[in-house]
Amino acid sequence: MTDCIFCKIANREVNSRIVFENERVVAFHDLFPAAPTHVLIVPRQHYSTLNDVPADQAALLGEMVATATQLAKDNGFAEDGYRVVMNCNPDGGQSVYHIHLHLLAGRKLTWPPG
Ligand code: DGP
C-alpha cells in the first residue's frame, strides 16, 4: 500500500526504531508507548485488519507471535511477563490499518483493558 505508515516503516521510507526484521516481519518501537517496552510487530505484507488475513496465512500470524516471544526472551522480561494484543476495527481500538501485534512489558499491566 503506498499510503500506509507501517508499510513505509517496514520499507525504511520512514524512520523508526526497528529492533528486528526478516523477510516477512518487522518489529519497531511504538511512537506513543503505553508501557516501558512497547514494540509493534508487523508483517511486510499489507493486511488492513485481522479480518483480511486469509486462512492460509495463519503461519504469518504465528511468526508475529513467535517474534514477540523471542523479543521478550532476548530483552529479559519473559519471566516477569508481558502482553501481546492485536486490536481490530473501531470497537477493538484499532487506529492504524495495517495489522500489528503490540508487545507490552516493563510494568504490571491491568485487566480488563478499557
Ligand atoms: P492501534 O491503536 O492498535 O492501531 O495501534 C497503533 C499504534 O501505532 C499506536 O500504539 C501508536 C502507533 N503509531 C502510530 N503511528 C506511528 C508511527 O508513525 N510510528 C510508530 N513507531 N508508531 C506509530
Which fold name is given in CATH as the topology? HIT family, subunit A
Provide the CATH architecture: 2-Layer Sandwich
N-to-C series of helices and strands: HEEEHEHE
Report the end-to-end length measured between terminal Cα atoms. Answer: 31 Å
Assign the CATH superfamily. Answer: HIT-like
Ligands and ions found: 2'-deoxyguanosine-5'-monophosphate
Features:
single chain; alpha+beta; HIT family, subunit A; five-stranded antiparallel sheet; 24% helix; globular
Description:
By secondary structure, the protein is α+β, with helices and mostly antiparallel strands. The protein has one domain: HIT family, subunit A. It has three helices and five strands; from the N terminus they run H-E-E-E-H-E-H-E. The protein has a five-stranded antiparallel sheet with strand order 1-2-3-5-4, covered by helices on one side. The model has no long low-confidence stretch (mean pLDDT 97). The structure holds 2'-deoxyguanosine-5'-monophosphate (DGP). 2'-deoxyguanosine-5'-monophosphate (DGP) binds at residues 5, 16, 28-32, 40, 87, 93-96.
Secondary structure topology:
Layout: H1 5-10, E1 18-21, E2 25-29, E3 37-43, H2 58-74, E4 82-85, H3 89-92, E5 101-105
Bound molecules: 2'-deoxyguanosine-5'-monophosphate.
2'-deoxyguanosine-5'-monophosphate (DGP) binds at residues 5, 16, 28-32, 40, 87, 93-96.
